[in-house]
Write a structure and sequence with these properties.
By secondary structure, the chain is of the alpha/beta class. It has a single domain, classed as Rossmann fold. It is built from eight helices and seven strands, in the order βαβαβαβαβαβααβα. The chain has a seven-stranded parallel beta sheet, sandwiched between helices. The structure holds NADPH dihydro-nicotinamide-adenine-dinucleotide phosphate.
Length: 248
């Protein structure tokens, strides 16, 4: 798949799934906008990106999404608009797990942080970047879901609530944009994947029994394909989408 001349913003690009997507998408020619909170991790990922395609360029945006507000979201917009003619996609990947505890014991400040990173930031970034996305020929927004977005489970607290909320946010954006915009909105549950977050959530699990972030790349690529333009389905789980992309 040729992604040259496509510019894709990946939030939480310094680790886990986001980092692998950044590296793999860059190998296919895309310009990558790396958004993360840690400057040295951003530099490390930047150095791993492919820079060999003609006119390919990448951008680092250092931002703590727990603190995102109108002003910093507009700064992100302006930084992208200064460097690129258009924005072709946002992968809203950044998230934090928060605390695994009962709702009764959940610290309010931690609750707010999780909701800010996992739900409020994707809302504000999408809203602020919508106009620049609409300059793309094939614009995409991909939200990242989870198994606990559909069923409340003890101890998953703010993380689960944020993913329930994100599902609603994705559905509302999809519904609002399908008749007024060329932007396609998807919400993808990657399923259990070998990352730092998964290890924190399930410390007793053997990570070698899980798929790796690299196994997800073809699913994410499908969202950027012309084929997905005709999809009436917005919500996907790894198990179904991986079969679909293998079959095509
Ligand atoms: P990781 O914890 O490995 O990576 C999360 C990324 O988000 C890191 O780059 C992290 O930065 C970044 N991030 C966290 N907080 C902020 C912040 N305040 N501002 C900016 N960036 C931030 O998680 P995964 O790769 O496992 O998860 C990626 C997505 O997939 C998440 O949305 C998660 O909910 C979802 N998911 C993951 C599953 C799994 O099994 N791994 C299963 C289902 C869904 P830093 O490097 O600084 O920590």
């Amino acid at each position: 798949m040729d992604l040259s001349h496509r510019t894709i913003l990946i939030t939480g690009a310094t680790d886990g799934i986001g980092k692998v997507l950044a590296v793999e998408f860059s190998k296919l020619g895309s310009n990558i906008i790396l958004l993360g909170r840690d400057a040295s991790k951003l530099d490390t990922v930047y150095d791993q990106l492919d820079h060999s395609f003609k006119s390919q360029k990448h951008l680092i945006l250092q931002a703590d999404l727990s603190l995102l507000n109108n002003e910093s979201a507009h700064e992100i917009h302006n930084a992208i608009a200064e460097e690129f003619i258009s924005l072709d996609g946002i992968i809203h990947n950044a998230a934090i797990l928060g605390t695994m505890t009962t709702l009764e014991d959940y610290e309010l400040s931690r609750w707010d942080e999780v909701l800010n990173v996992n739900l409020r930031a994707p809302f504000l970034l999408t809203k602020t970047l919508k106009t620049i996305l609409e300059t793309s020929m094939l614009p995409r927004i991909i939200f990242t879901s989870s198994g606990v977005a559909n069923m409340g489970r003890a101890f998953w607290g703010a993380y689960s609530v944020s993913k329930f909320g994100l599902k609603g946010l994705a559905e509302i954006f999809a519904n609002e944009l399908e008749t007024t915009s060329s932007i396609k909105v998807f919400n993808f549950d990657p399923g259990a994947t070998q990352t730092k977050m998964r290890a924190s959530a399930r410390p007793a699990e053997n990570p070698n029994t899980l798929k790796t972030p690299s196994d997800l790349v073809n699913c994410y690529l499908w969202f950027f394909s012309e084929e997905s333009s005709d999809s009436k389905q917005h919500y996907f789980e790894y198990a179904d989408l991986s079969k679909k992309v293998t079959a095509t």
